[in-house]
Write a structure and sequence with these properties.
Length: 88
């Protein structure tokens, strides 16, 4: 993954979390901090899946990192929804 620094990863996390919300249907609202944390977790998860499970080389550039983080964030959102279950 590119060396974005902590501020760069927070920005990527915010963007990835927000964009993943568009791909995963539902009305959950996590706020700016929650969305950023979901995006950062998604980036970590997506990067791990990309390199360790799929055996690919790390993403190059901001766009590659963002796409992988969006996919990971979507997975995180689906897991959060499944863990929370349906409310009556």
């Amino acid at each position: 993954m590119p060396d974005l620094g902590i501020i760069g990863w927070i920005v990527v996390g915010l963007l990835a979390g927000a964009m993943a919300g568009f791909f995963v249907p539902g009305r959950e609202r996590y706020g700016c901090l929650g969305t950023t944390l979901i995006g950062i977790l998604g980036g970590i998860l997506g990067g791990w899946i990309w390199t360790q499970v799929l055996g690919q080389s790390p993403a190059s550039g901001l766009l590659g990192a963002l796409l992988i983080a969006i996919l990971g964030s979507a997975i995180v959102l689906l897991v959060l929804r499944a863990a929370r279950g349906r409310e009556p």
